[in-house]
Amino acid sequence: MLVRLSIVAAIAAALTIPVNASAAGVRGGHAAHGSAHVGRSVHVNRNVHVNRNVHVNRNVHVNRGVTRSTAVVGRRYHGGVWYGTGRHFWNGRWYAYGVGSCWRTTPIGFVWVCG
After folding, report:
1. Residue 30's pLDDT band (boundaries 50, 70, 90)?
2. How confident is the model at residue 26 (pLDDT cuts 50, 70, 90)?
3. Fewer CB within 10 Å, N side or C side of the chain?
């Protein structure tokens, strides 16, 4: 019990020493005039480097010789019928564009080869 009491007293004394020392510093000097001096010297680095040398790649190759497919919906192409880029209904089932064994890939896209 006495050991605990001495530990608590030592901690309390250690905590009050910095408070008393800082209070003594405030009482002397500028505090006598009613104001305390606070150090507010802050250095701000305003030297910001902006890289304005942006390189633009103007050597872009545009393939102008290739034309889009002008296939007509319902016509036969490359062994099948081109139905556009949508799905197709066959034998009671919808087949997504290009999905399943009834679609064959060709240069114009997928063509329907079943039934």
Report:
1. low
2. low
3. N
Distance separating alpha carbons of residues 2 and 12, to the nearest angstrom: 15
Distance CA 84, CA 57 (A): 36
Residue pair 109/84 in contact (Cβ under 8 Å)? The answer is no
Q: Are 78 and 108 in contact (CB under 8 A)?
A: yes
Report the pLDDT value the prediction gives residue 34, as an integer from 0 to 100: 61
Strand residue runs (E) in 1-108: 76-77, 80-81, 88-90, 93-95, 103-106
108 and 77 in contact (C-beta within 8 Å)?
yes
CA distance 110 to 112: 7
Is pTM, for the whole model, over 0.85? no
Kindly list the domain boundaries of the chain, sorted by start residue: 2-31, 76-112
